[in-house]
Structure to design on (282 residues):
């Protein structure tokens, strides 16, 4: 009698620390397609309520409640987690930060004793170290999202013009240096001149600022720094990004193939086609 074939062990459940936007919802859906159970820790004031429909269980947590997050992850028996979605980073400089977020003791210790500066990598790296110190591995934010990563080459019906390609070629190495310095991931270029670089305000506002200075016809480059830690702060573009490009009369968006997340990919490409914006993966 032949033994029954063994079925592969399913992947263990995963905790999802969910910020704003579509990213956490898309992550949960893609995990579900792989039969991976997801328990969401949804950041109050950031995560979308509809995330609850996409996960096994959802806990609302404060942004600065590090101790609470770890207790929930351990109570749920989770040994791995991922982060998806952003938070409003400018809030760090609010004069009412403490009163608004009411950080717990563990968050206070992290912020004042373990974070050496306020760069994204420093803050999130210290957060990852805290989790791993409790036996919880922080996975890549792109773990199940391969099909939503940017392709190489032109992804839209409209191909880039020579001028647009020249702006991309000019801006790409500069954008890589800016990203490496952890200033921002987005650069706005026109006629081989940098007109804006992303700061703390985020991609959309950087695009608007560049268009205000240079007018219509700008080219936007967005990419990750070399050796980007894919556990957090991966470059993302979505329909909102395309809407901003359309609003300001931008011509093209160049993103990094295989590393930039498109939220969600078919919708982003369709929106770019409708706006007659060229979308290039490089």
């Amino acid at each position: 009698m032949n033994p029954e074939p063994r079925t592969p062990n399913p992947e263990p459940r995963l905790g999802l620390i969910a910020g704003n936007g579509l990213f956490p919802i898309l992550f949960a859906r893609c995990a579900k397609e792989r039969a991976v159970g997801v328990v969401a820790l949804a950041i109050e004031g950031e995560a979308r309520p509809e995330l609850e429909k996409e996960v096994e269980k959802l806990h609302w947590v404060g942004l600065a409640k590090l101790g609470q997050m770890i207790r929930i992850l351990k109570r749920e028996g989770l040994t791995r987690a991922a982060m998806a979605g952003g938070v409003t980073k400018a809030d760090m400089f609010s004069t009412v930060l403490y009163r608004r977020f009411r950080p717990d003791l563990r968050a206070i210790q992290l912020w004042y004793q373990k974070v050496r500066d306020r760069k994204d990598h420093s803050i999130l790296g210290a957060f990852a170290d805290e989790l791993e110190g409790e036996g919880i591995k922080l996975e890549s934010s792109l773990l199940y999202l391969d099909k939503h990563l940017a392709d190489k080459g032109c992804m839209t019906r409209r191909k880039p013009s020579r001028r647009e390609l020249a702006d991309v070629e000019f801006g790409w190495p500069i954008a890589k240096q800016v990203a490496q310095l952890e200033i921002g991931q987005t650069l706005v270029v026109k006629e081989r001149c940098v007109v804006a670089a992303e700061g703390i305000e985020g991609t959309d506002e950087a695009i608007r600022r560049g268009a205000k200075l240079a007018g219509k016809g700008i080219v936007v480059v967005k990419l990750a720094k070399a050796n980007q830690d894919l556990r957090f702060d991966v470059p993302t573009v979505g329909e909102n990004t395309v809407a901003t490009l359309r609003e300001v009369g931008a011509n093209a968006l160049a993103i990094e193939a295989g590393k930039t997340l498109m939220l969600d990919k078919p919708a982003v490409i369709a929106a770019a086609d409708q706006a007659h914006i060229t979308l290039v993966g490089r």
Observations:
- The chain has a mean pLDDT of 90.
- The first strand starts at residue 14 and ends at 18.
- The chain has two domains: 14-138, 146-281.
